[in-house]
């Protein structure tokens, strides 16, 4: 047989003609002499009727014995369903295929989990059988939507004069950001390529080459800790433009994102997108990626707290810190448990505690702070945070960074508690601009570039590059959607003098500059146009557009949170001959080439030491069995440690216990003879417990 139609592409206008369809048997209903099978392919499902009167004995027997998810080819005629059996929820629900012949192309084994109820299956299992998981309509539609967005991006950029150019995957490591994935060279042993974290340097070289407008849907790699919206390998929409300023690029990005949402979702985003400087975003929302779907702005009360009677506030201000507050309108009824939970979260964010005021409905304040402020100062404090009867106001006093992290985190926690972020169809974009050019690294003892060393400072801040780096603002910008950073970009340095001062501010020697960026600096000597660019994560954008909880829902073959692939087992060991060819055979001697599982299985347990700690005597005939059993326990513990538990709720509830331990005070030990006086049998100065269970 040769397929003539997709199952889900047939329509009622096709009724009356013959068709050959192929796909997976989604389910089967045997009515005795008549069998109904829903046949599924990429485009949808079609009900197929196997009637013993219309089929050969062999074909009907094959339909009777068919297992779910087996692949079949069916030949027959399309006919209308009776009125009472029509299914209006399906595009093919008004008709069915009356089978005249069937061929089983591939018999399926029993499935490891039911596809129709995969939501209750552990994610690690679904990822191990991802080829089955992708048969579920939801994931298939996610991939289809992703492909459409990628096509819309390409079409739009092509229409705007951008040229698609591929850049190398094997490139040079430039350690000025996240960790690189390194690739050893066989030809140049002892040397390594790096997989690109982004095409940053090459797209700037393309501007030097005169390409003018470049784009690429690029694969990128970063060796960093994972989370729900991060993967070690990801897809980035990358672009660079010549002879532009920041305003040109922001207008271009706004047009592009509005086009994508209009064409992909039918949503007309409001224009213009709100704009916030980095400082405004941190002051008002405690985050450089603010979620604008709800209010809860942060209020600064530092000056009111200066010199107040509350020592926590006063000392924070005296130390150069800030005091800020969040006003939760109408929630003076927060329970003691809720307030304690918010306090715990504040402590987890790094704050020393959380002061609060509950303004009862009659306007009476309930707070310890009333003891430390005069009536006039307390009224001024409430006025600064727009405090009204019924409000709940919480405070944080500490360093600027700690206060922003704490109140920014609590703002999102409160939004979730109050259900302010539940509408998946609410999309709020904004631009965040004017990021600091540098941030100080305590670990390295120097200023490092907030974005990268090629970001152009504002002209008016250039005099402070070497004298006051913390004051310098970068012509850098982020696009934020619903509290998620979609991507970032900047205007690049095209002046050799500015680039030299930038490297000097970062503490690079001439040798380091040549080693890390020599090829780019060299290119800049031959005429460099003013240019800037931007890149955003395609995976992350699609996740936001679909309201998916994780990037893994919009990627065909994702990794787990520890960067493993349950499907293929990657990363894994390689053949020693491969390491030898790369000049890395010495790693085997150090155990580097041995997989973790093998190393655990080779672990020998010191039974004598364990027995001594447990005060047990091990008979010689028991030693071998105990060694094997304890090694199995070590291996099992390793398997538990590798299990991906992200999103898995705790299986039990543990009640906190207090005062359950005796004071650890040394007492007078009893003589061994007294301890053993009541023992029915002793052995070598210990109780002897005979074996009673095999």
TrEMBL record:
* Function, as annotated: Allows the formation of correctly charged Asn-tRNA(Asn) or Gln-tRNA(Gln) through the transamidation of misacylated Asp-tRNA(Asn) or Glu-tRNA(Gln) in organisms which lack either or both of asparaginyl-tRNA or glutaminyl-tRNA synthetases. The reaction takes place in the presence of glutamine and ATP through an activated phospho-Asp-tRNA(Asn) or phospho-Glu-tRNA(Gln). Catalyzes the attachment of L-aspartate to tRNA(Asp) in a two-step reaction: L-aspartate is first activated by ATP to form Asp-AMP and then transferred to the acceptor end of tRNA(Asp).
Coarse class of the protein's main subcellular location: cytoplasm
Task: Return the protein name.
Answer: Multifunctional fusion protein
Give the gene that encodes this protein: aspS
EC nos? 6.1.1.12, 6.3.5.-
**Compartments where located:** Cytoplasm
- What organism is recorded for this protein? Anaerotruncus massiliensis
Lineage, highest ranks first: Bacteria, Bacillati, Bacillota, Clostridia, Eubacteriales
User: Which residue range or ranges hold the Aminoacyl-transfer RNA synthetases class-II family profile domain?
Assistant: 143-558
What family is this?
Answer: Belongs to the class-II aminoacyl-tRNA synthetase family. Type 1 subfamily.
Q: Name one GO molecular function term.
A: nucleic acid binding
NCBIfam families found in the cross-reference section: aspS_bact, gatC, PRK00476.1
The biological process GO terms on file are: aspartyl-tRNA aminoacylation; regulation of translational fidelity
Which Gene Ontology cellular component terms are annotated?
cytoplasm
